[in-house]
Specification:
Shape: elongated
Main location: secreted
Subcellular location: Secreted
Pfam family, one: NDNF_N
Low-confidence stretches: 1-38, 101-123, 242-278
Strand content: 35-45%
Mean pLDDT: 79
Helix content: under 10%
CATH architecture of the largest domain: Sandwich
Number of strands: 36
Protein name: Protein NDNF
GO molecular function, one term: heparin binding
CATH topology of the largest domain: Immunoglobulin-like
Distance between the termini: 88 Å
């Protein structure tokens, strides 16, 4: 038998009204309007499920109503209603429609048709408001009733479309859907560092009773506190971030492992085991009630919310949120540069911090020299607080600057990639005594495929107009080592780091005509079908080497 939704609910409403109005004396004209208005509201309501959390979607300025019925009982029957706003503040109220003893149908003596209610007798209102609230906090109403009554909940959002969750239960003996909060639900900040904040909170009674199904989750962000996980999830979604449908900020099976971290980036939600930069960070730490939040930014205000979560129902309760500002980062240590002295700086790619070098000029003209050894490095040079140079380094780079005596130069270096980088730095007033040799147009090594044999290869490289020393080294490598060797090569290291058996030869050459400043070398005594890594080192007057880009060549298998 099929029927429409209206056909199903209409008889139910009529039955409810009939039950409530059975043997009620006809009210006066003034109370009739209240009575009819109340019933009209009930007719346009939905039934609220008992013992189940209901999600209610609200349109702006349009009220929505739900109702439930309590049967008559010999003893007082408790019930609770919990409403969780998931976004903006809302207004909600509870109205009750009861049978009244004064309108019980027990007629007084006299003619029923002519009897009138005494003017001094006040007829009680059929519909009365027993609770109302406006705000965005999680609010719970606890009531008691022994009479048959019809209750209506009315919800209204005046700011914008939103949604809420509503939980009604008339069975208060079978346990709680929501975990319980302690008497003091505050979060205490017990330690603040440059990049860490330590928090502690009192245990939830639910954790002590049901340890295996309850755990704490901490939400960290830089905007404001959230009064529920539902509110946090809504805020994140409204900012344009993507949340997988089966994994919102409420607990999921993916977060059962302690200290897993959920990072919300600009595009997608991902779970990782270490902290990372992101909009919101959620950390679930089991039943521990003390936690140190790592890898925060210095001098930044963070907001912290702790939720105790029931893993079986996904229901949660929020502690009173708190906030803290991390300490300011200490001024970085500045290393003094000395004339002519070469230093090598290793930069931490993970921290992405600037490494500072300071130099006070003793001459009007000075020259900074940078040799990129590994990775990618950005350099920023200021003179008396004003920027004079800023760029990403590549190979060997000179900066010739003019100024006044005792000008103060500050050199700041940082790695622009996640792995560590390194660079050699020198400052000198002696332009006529360069630290590094004169370099060719290219530091690439070329190999000739047609000249390869089973036991030899021929390579070539560019020289300069200045007579210099060139040394060739080779090393046998495997196929799976090629990428790592080329990526990890230290372009500042000299032949001293190589084994003596790897040395092939050293030679001097130059040509005043740069077009002819090219040299070739055939390396013999190699194994057939084997990969070799070749390096060329260029030495100048100062003896400091410059390494050409490594070249991998494979000998022929058959000849």
């Amino acid at each position: 038998l099929k029927m429409s939704r209206l056909e199903f609910y209409l008889p139910l409403h009529i039955l409810l009204a009939a039950c409530l109005c059975h043997s009620i004396k006809a009210p006066t004209t003034s109370s009739q309007q209240s009575f009819k208005s109340g019933l009209f509201n009930f007719y346009h309501s939905l039934i609220l499920a008992d013992g189940k959390e209901t999600t209610v979607h609200l349109l702006k300025d349009i009220p929505k109503r739900y109702y439930f019925v309590l049967e008559e009982s010999r003893v007082l029957s408790p019930f609770t209603i919990t409403v969780t706003p998931c976004d903006v503040p809302i207004e909600w109220s509870i109205l009750v429609h009861r049978t009244s003893a004064s309108l019980s149908g027990k007629e007084t003596q006299g003619d029923h048709d002519t009897q009138e209610v005494s003017k001094s007798q006040k007829v009680p209102s059929m519909v009365s408001t027993i609770f109302n609230y406006k705000g965005n906090s999680v609010e719970t109403y606890m009531g008691m009733s022994s009479h048959a009554a019809l209750y209506m909940l009315e919800f209204l959002s005046t700011e914008r479309d939103t949604h809420i969750t509503v939980y009604l239960t008339t069975d208060t003996t079978s346990g709680h859907l929501y975990p319980e909060l302690p008497m003091d639900p505050r979060i205490d900040v017990v330690g603040i560092g440059h990049t860490t904040v330590t928090l502690t909170w009192k245990h939830s009674p639910s954790v002590l009773q049901h340890q295996e199904s309850i755990q704490y989750c901490l939400l960290v962000n830089e905007k404001h506190n959230y009064k529920s996980l539902c509110a946090a999830e809504t805020a994140i979604r409204s900012s344009g971030m993507k949340l997988p449908p089966t994994l919102a900020l409420s607990l999921s099976p993916y977060l059962l492992e302690p200290q897993q971290v959920m990072i919300l980036s600009n595009s997608e939600l991902s779970i990782i085991n270490k902290a990372s930069s992101g909009e919101v960070r959620q950390i679930c730490m089991g039943t521990k009630n003390t936690y140190t939040v790592p890898t925060l930014s210095p001098s930044t205000q963070y907001y912290f919310d702790v939720f105790v979560v029931n893993l079986l129902t996904n229901a949660s309760a929020a502690y009173t949120g708190t906030f803290a500002r991390t300490l300011e980062e200490p001024e970085p240590k500045v290393m003094e540069l000395k004339d002519g002295k070469v230093i090598q700086v290793v930069l931490d790619g993970k921290k992405q911090k600037f490494y500072s070098l300071q130099y006070q000029a003793r001459h009007k003209k000075i020259q900074f020299t940078f040799q990129l050894c590994h990775g990618q490095v950005q350099v920023h040079i200021t003179k008396n607080g004003k920027t004079v140079a800023s760029e990403n380094l590549s190979g060997l780079r000179y900066f010739s600057l003019k100024g006044k005596l005792l000008d103060t130069y500050l050199v700041q270096l940082r790695s622009t990639e996640e792995s560590n980088s390194s660079v050699k730095v020198q400052v000198s007033p002696h332009f006529h005594k360069p630290l590094f040799p004169l370099l060719p147009e290219s530091l690439k090594i070329k190999s000739f495929s047609k000249l390869r044999t089973c036991n030899s290869v021929t390579i070539a490289w560019l020289g300069t107009q200045e007579e210099s020393k060139y040394c060739v080294y080779k090393r046998r490598i495997e196929e799976d080592q090629v990428w790592r060797e080329l990526q990890s090569a230290d372009r500042c290291s000299g032949p001293e780091s190589r084994h003596k058996s790897e040395k092939v030869l050293c030679k001097y050459f130059y040509d005043l005509n740069l077009q002819r400043a090219v040299t070739t070398e055939t390396i013999k005594g190699l194994d057939a079908g084997t990969l070799y890594l070749f390096d060329v080192y260029l030495f100048g007057p100062s003896g400091i080497p410059v390494r050409y880009h490594s070249k991998v060549v494979k000998t022929r298998k058959k000849c």
